[in-house]
Design brief:
This protein is an alpha/beta fold and 292 residues long. The chain has helices at residues 41-44, 49-52, 71-81, 85-107, 152-161, 166-184, 187-197, 202-223, 232-242, 245-251, 266-278, and strands at 13-15, 116-120, 123-125, 131-133, 139-141, 146-150. The chain has one domain. 46% of the residues lie in helices and 8% in strands. Helix 5 (152-161) crosses helix 9 (232-242), helix 6 (166-184) packs across helix 9 (232-242) and helix 9 runs antiparallel to helix 11 (266-278). InterPro entries: Uncharacterised_pept_Zn_put.
């Protein structure tokens, strides 16, 4: 995907560099329940997903905008964004994601707030959701409105999906950005309340959240279809297939149990990604909550 260069005045990014504390200037010292995370790595690393995911509990929100202005911050972000090829690519993607979704929200007359992005290796201490290791996979923390990505996961994803193409990696960050959209629109809070009210529906609602985030990832790409290279869609679909719950469980030698699904099957994830890519209506991704 032919993304333009990153613009440090438009993004809020940092690197924990293997476990530094802090976050992206959101809520400091805010307690939260279980991370709202894309637990792609739970099965990949041989963990029982039911031991790592838990049902999402309520999260106290604080509305401070992510990041502050100033040349010092932009200089720091310049260093982070040029620290590796993966970092530069992530910063390029974040710049475009912010521009794309901010414009969509403006057209709908909705308030918009950018997320932060933390690129780390091994482990990270978030400001709102406690600590996490690479076993958690990429995740979004609603309390500090931050996207957290262990860049080492990209190497694992390339092995799993059989493609080292950039669109597979962009799909990951765009999916986590989708969780941010769910957070700032209030949908995430609604889902958490419903999960607590009706525990029997908790897994089904969690899967709906993840499939909608996949759809948003596809929708972002569709809004920038003039930047898509030949083969990008295939790369994204391969990645979506590789991280479907049924495929992950099968590859880990586990029995496939739909009651333990958290993200949807490979087919469901591919369908959601394609739906977003082909949609021209921003409300198309709401289909996953119809009837819930």
């Amino acid at each position: 995907m032919r993304l333009g260069p990153f613009d440090t005045s438009k993004i809020n990014v940092r690197s924990s560099d293997g476990g530094g504390g802090g976050g992206m200037g959101g809520a400091r010292g805010v307690g939260c329940g279980t991370l709202v995370i894309a637990l792609i790595g739970a099965v990949v690393f041989g963990l029982d997903p039911m031991q790592t995911i838990g049902m999402v509990e309520s999260v106290q929100q604080q509305g401070a905008p992510a990041g502050t202005s100033g040349g010092g911050r932009e200089m720091d972000e310049q260093v982070v964004c040029t620290s590796s090829a993966y970092a530069t690519e992530a910063c390029n993607a974040l710049t475009n994601l912010n521009d794309t979704w901010q414009a969509s929200f403006a057209r709908s007359g909705l308030p918009f707030e950018q997320p932060g992005l933390d690129l780390f290796r091994g482990q990270v201490d978030t400001e709102g959701c406690g600590s996490a290791t690479s076993a958690a996979g990429p995740f979004y923390c609603p309390a500090d409105k931050g996207i957290y990505i262990d860049t080492g996961f990209y190497d694992q994803l390339a092995q799993m999906s059989g493609t080292g193409g950039d669109f597979a990696r962009l799909y990951v960050i765009a999916h986590e950005y989708g969780h941010h959209l769910q957070n700032i629109t209030g949908l995430a809070n609604q889902v958490r309340r419903e999960q607590q009210r009706n525990p029997a529906a908790a897994n089904r609602l969690q899967v709906a959240m993840e499939l909608q985030a996949d759809c948003y990832a596809g929708m972002w790409a569709g809004k920038n279809r003039d930047l898509i290279d030949p083969g990008d869609l295939e790369e994204g679909l391969k990645a979506a297939s590789a991280i479907g719950d049924d495929t992950l469980m099968r590859n880990a030698g586990q029995s496939i149990n739909p009651e333990n699904f958290t993200h949807g099957t490979s087919r469901q994830r591919m369908t959601a990604l394609r739906l977003g890519l082909e949609s021209t209506n921003d409300a198309a991704c709401n289909v996953f909550f119809e009837g819930t």
